Amino acid sequence: MPITYMPAEGLIHISAADVSYIIHIYRGCYPLHVYYGKRVPDEDVRWYVEAPYRRKKLIENLQPDDTMFLREFFPFEYPTYGTSDFRKPALDLRDAAGSCVTDLRYTGHEIIPGKPALKGMPSLYCETDGEATTMRLDMQDAKSGLKVALYYTVFEKTGLITRRTEIANGGDTPVTLKSALSVSMDFKHAPYEMIQLSGTALREHHIVRRKLECGETSIDSTRGISSHQQNPFIALVQQDTTETQGDAYGLSLVYSGNFVARVECDMYMSARVQLGINPFMFSWLLNPGDTFETPEAVMSYSPNGLNGMSQKLHDAFRTRLYRGVWRDRERPVLLNTWEAAYFDFTHDKIMEMARKAAKVGVELLVLDDGWFGHRDNDRSSLGDWYVAQHKLPHGLDGLARDINALGMKFGLWFEPEMISPESDLYRAHPDWCIHVEDRKRSEWRHQLMLDFSRPEVRNYIVESVCSVLESANIEYVKWDCNRRMTEPGTCSLPPERQDELMHRYVLGLYDVVERITSHFPNILFENCASGGARMDPGMLAYFPQNWASDDSDAEARLKIQYGTSLCYPPVMTTSHVSICPNEQLKRTEPLSFRGHVAFPFNLGYELNLCRLSEEELCEVAQQIEQYKSMRALVQHGRFYRLLDPFSGPHTAWMTVAEDGSEFVAWFYKPEAMPEEAYINVRLAGLDPDAHYENVDNGQVISGAALMNMGLIIDWTVGDDFSQMWHFKRV
Ligand code: DGJ
Predict the structure, then answer these.
(1) Terminal-residue alpha carbon distance, the chain
(2) Residues 6 or more apart from 615 whose CB is under 8 A from it?
(3) Cα 589–chain centre separation
(4) How many whole angstroms from 531 Cα to the centroid of ligand 1?
């Protein structure tokens, strides 16, 4: 049984694969955190809990009804504030009398096969009840009647654990939630370091690794979306944790709005780790009988370093988060028109590119921004989702038909959450945007955000997007989002409830996306927010593809993609080969280097193929052919990071087929170095006793040699060197 209850000791042991998570119901009253880490046997669980809590002498005789003046020494599973725990609480509220005091006590628990669904928000799922086991741990505050249920689900195959919290007002007066986090966990010994994915537009998901010190180490978003600046993911590691060894704890939030992820180390270097909706700019009125659900947090522990941690997340996000038909399908190689033409295109110009694309083997042509309303630049028309006749006289239907006739699919860009002040929609409904009465509406890229907390706004957008999708054979959608929330205000809520808006917006977004994606189950949806500003598990649940950055420079993407892969699976991350000199950095890199950087992810092209020479077109055609020959392996294999661009001049990674029958590895050296030392890349994830044959030259090498001696890199001069190897098991 992956969840065992030991009533005599009041212990609950959650264990699967190589993971254990242990809770102690202290004096039958308070669920306390005992352990999370490498799997231990049940009998040792009994022994461990005997180990003293700090100040044992003082607390020994403490009865549950005594004032718990020593709460700050207790490792709570879901802490509150107001008595004697002075660390940050998971739950903070004000009752009808304005008091924050809450005393949550254990009332029971239930172990359930499978995983109950979370309504209104995305979450992981299982296909059979045998895949996962869930425990609902119930607590109550006797005075107010508030009921809190903590949900823990453990996945059998990987030991991955999800947590979420349900808060119900079982009393007869309203309470206001000020903070309701998804997960809180008190580690006795703080991990040594925290890793975060930080950045900005064009520099997303850069790895920052910092030492935990006494006090708080945190990241968050206050922008209304998860953000470029911080991704809702942290990893906690020891000093000696590497890609292949040591403890690594990954925590990721299935949520697309304001979040917080923090570690608070106390004076004894015990660490409170928390993840959830950012309490800043949040509150929620819970009337008697109401329930509030937090988003789900995903916790991936591996004793085998960061690769082990990431692989469990990749596996979960790839196979148990997104549900649609594209989960298991190979993804088409696409050509996107954005960097090729921006707003400057016509039917004929697109068709000129399309003919070249079809010739080199592209399978999907995506028409990006500029096809609707009067959209000749970014100053107008968002919200007016009808075709720009002056550019597309045959309509979307005519264009889709012509593209389909070349043997390619047709895809389209939308930015459904936005409204341009210069639009018919704004002229008709100036109050449909997020705004505060009598205050200036800050424009960002000349646009405002629609108020998705309002059902009539959501309905309008669902209907108008659906009617475009029904008007032509559109088989792919790129869903963009190019601004952050300002003047957060809504006409749909009274003044005292305005702080509900930012969460309500996210719930509204999920409602719209759910309705549109389920209405068109065969359409391939890609998520984008000025690049990777909203690449989070909440969006991954609906979008099997995600645009990680608007920086299409191959060298810059090495870091972006390396960091992204810490949490997100390569198949869900798109990467495009673009023009040289590159549009963002004006750098020139060989086509082979650009192709090798995009290959391990989800390959696309974003350049005007009409500007390439015949020789270059030939090379593109060869790249696409080669990619297709290894696509199933690359898109659905197990990804290993080998050389880290953040700590050295080289990058390397590889993908091993799930059945171990073949692998592809890549090495990159962006900058030449004089008289460089020999470089070898040690591979990972192979069978040491098996032999593998190099597909290009027939050389046979053992798994042991490949993983220990490594592959020797060709000695070269010149910048932007890359190498790719494809081996098959013999
Ligand atoms: C921002 C996206 O990240 C780009 O890829 C492109 O779609 C533009 N928006 C279009 O406005």
Answers:
(1) 39
(2) none
(3) 30
(4) 7
According to DSSP, the β-strands at 476-479 and 524-527 are parallel
Place of tokens 């990071």: 641
Instruction: Say yes or no to pLDDT of 21 above 90.
Output: yes
> In 3D, which of 211, 210, 270 has the Cα closest to residue 79?
270
In one-letter notation, the amino acid at residue 181 is L
What pLDDT is stored for residue 368 in this prediction? 98
Instruction: Please tell me the pTM assigned to this model.
Output: 0.97
Q: For ligand 1, what atom is nearest to the CA of residue 606? A: 5
Mutate which of 379, 482, 549, 607 to test ligand 1's pocket (most atoms within 8 Å of Cβ)?
Answer: 482
Encode pLDDT of 323-379 as tens digits: 999 999 999 999 999 999 999 999 999 999 999 999 999 999 999 999 999 999 999
Best substitution site from 228, 368, 578, 583 to test ligand 1's pocket, by max atoms within 8 Å of Cβ? 368
Q: How far apart are CA 458 and CA 461, in angstroms?
A: 5
Residues 6+ apart with CB under 8 A from 344: 370
Q: Identify the residue whose C-alpha is closest to ligand 1 atom 2.
A: 530
For ligand 1, whether the C-beta of 324 sits within 6 Å is no
526 lines ligand 1 (CB under 6 A): no
- What is the H or E stretch that residue 709 is in? none
Strand intervals (E) in 11-145: 11-16, 19-26, 30-38, 91-94, 104-113, 132-141
One-letter amino acid of 126: C
Catalytic residue among 480, 499, 644, 720: 480
d(CA 544, CA 574): 10
Task: Render pLDDT for 72-81 as a digit per residue (tens, 0 to 9).
Answer: 888 999 999 9
Rounded to whole angstroms, the Cα distance separating 427 from 419 reads 10
Encoded amino acid at 90, one letter = A
92 lines ligand 1 (CB under 6 A): no
Residues in Cβ contact with 324 at an 8 Å cutoff, skipping those fewer than 6 apart: 517, 521, 542, 544
Provide the 3-class DSSP secondary structure of residue 510: helix
Q: Which residues of 137-162 are buried (b: 16+ CB within 10 A; e: fewer)?
A: bbbbbeebebbbbbbbbbbeebbbbb
Q: What is the CA radius of gyration of the chain?
A: 27
Three-state SS for 63?
Answer: coil
Q: Kindly indicate the confidence band of residue 70, based on its pLDDT and cuts at 50, 70 and 90.
A: confident
* 3-class state of residue 240 by DSSP: coil
Q: Are 219 and 198 within 8 A, CB to CB? A: yes
Identify whether 480 is a catalytic site residue: yes
* 550 Cα nearest atom in ligand 1: 3
**Whether residue 548 has its Cβ less than 6 Å from ligand 1:** no
Q: Is the CB of 528 under 6 A from ligand 1?
A: yes
Using CA atoms, how far residue 589 sits from 408, 484, 605, 729, in Å, is 28, 33, 15, 33
Which residue type, as a one-letter code, is found at position 352? E
Mean pLDDT value of segment 67-91: 87
Question: Does 162 contact ligand 1 (Cβ within 6 A)?
Answer: no
Which residue puts its alpha carbon closest to atom 11 of ligand 1? 369
CB count, 10 Å around CB of 6?
A: 17
CA dihedral 204, 208, 214, 215 (to 10 degrees): -10
550 has catalytic annotation: yes
Rounded to whole angstroms, the Cα distance separating 479 from 416 reads 7
CA of 369 to the centre of ligand 1 (A): 7
Q: Is the predicted pLDDT of residue 50 greater than 60, yes or no?
A: no
- The catalytic residue among 85, 402, 550, 551 is 550
Question: 413 in ligand 1 pocket by Cβ < 6 Å?
Answer: yes
DSSP codes of every residue in 121-151: S-----SSGGGEEEEEEEEEETTT-EEEEEE
Instruction: Name the phi and psi angles at 341, rounded to 5.
Output: -140, -15
d(Cα 197, Cα 204) in Å, to the nearest integer? 8
